[in-house]
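Per your request, structure below.
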């Protein structure tokens, strides 16, 4: 089941900053009533397809000539204040060299004399060239039956024809007790889910992909570890009593590019999120680009 999207990402905090294009929504953390007020950003927040040497201009108010030295402009974390034109209306910077294609970071700081510290008047992002990443909206849905909702087919159909929904993934609970360990599960329920996902997926417009609840008893652990494994064509079992490291390796080395989502567990001690080879386990860290 091929699904094509130019990019698929869940880096939520950065995406929020990139696509929050309300230019007036700029927080200034200061008790100084004389702090400059940002009026306009060029390029604006989240703007894309910018030329490689863009004009960067921040317009502001509530600052006099004597306070202009309190301003600092950073582009991609480099101080470019001395290379900028500054007056009581705006600060303007023209890059000497072309920016590399991709996301650029701009930040304007002001020295707050009242609190004796630098504050960020605004920090925002824009993209040079064709964007490397896009923002897609959707949901990872867990087990339609347990939530007493409509069928997976109906849920995918509603999502497909709804505005502003680009993807949905549904993971179902499959009874795997009678299947042998380390074998693929021949589940009629899962085949039905896959069929529904194929039915409504349209390249470049909407993507739906199936998942299942993977459950295993790790070595020396009291409770089961449960993970929703998404974008999986062949549900499978692993034998119990594996170490956490071996479980990661077994999942990582499978043929499919799986996406892993940890489920709620009363015992979180069995997941060492940051110290157990997570940097090399792609399925628990990011959503792989679909081509």
């Amino acid at each position: 089941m091929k699904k094509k999207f130019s990019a698929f990402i869940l880096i939520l905090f950065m995406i929020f900053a990139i696509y929050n294009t309300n230019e007036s929504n700029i927080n200034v953390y200061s008790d100084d009533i004389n702090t400059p007020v940002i009026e306009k950003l060029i390029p604006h927040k989240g703007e894309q397809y910018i030329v490689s040497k863009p004009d960067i201009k921040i317009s502001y108010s509530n600052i006099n000539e004597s306070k202009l030295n309190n301003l600092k402009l950073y582009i991609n974390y480099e101080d470019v204040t001395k290379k900028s034109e500054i007056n009581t209306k705006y600060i303007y910077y023209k890059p000497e060299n072309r920016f590399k294609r991709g996301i650029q970071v701009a930040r304007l700081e002001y020295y707050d004399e009242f609190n004796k510290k630098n504050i960020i008047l605004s920090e925002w992002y824009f993209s040079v060239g064709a964007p490397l990443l896009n923002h897609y909206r959707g949901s990872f849905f867990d087990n339609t039956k347990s939530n007493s909702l409509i069928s997976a087919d109906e849920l995918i159909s509603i999502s497909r024809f709804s505005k502003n929904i680009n993807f949905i993934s549904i993971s179902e609970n499959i009874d795997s007790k009678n299947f042998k360990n380390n074998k693929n599960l021949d589940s009629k329920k899962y085949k039905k889910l896959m069929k529904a996902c194929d039915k409504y997926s349209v390249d470049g417009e909407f993507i739906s992909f199936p998942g299942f609840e993977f459950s295993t008893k790790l070595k020396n652990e009291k409770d089961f570890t449960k993970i929703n494994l998404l974008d999986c064509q062949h549900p499978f079992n692993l034998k119990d009593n594996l170490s956490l490291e071996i479980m990661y390796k077994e999942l990582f080395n499978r043929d499919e590019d799986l996406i892993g989502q940890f489920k709620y567990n009363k015992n979180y001690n069995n997941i060492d999120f940051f110290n157990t080879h997570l940097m090399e386990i792609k399925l628990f860290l990011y959503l792989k680009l679909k081509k």
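The first helix runs from residue 12 to 19.

Regards,
D.
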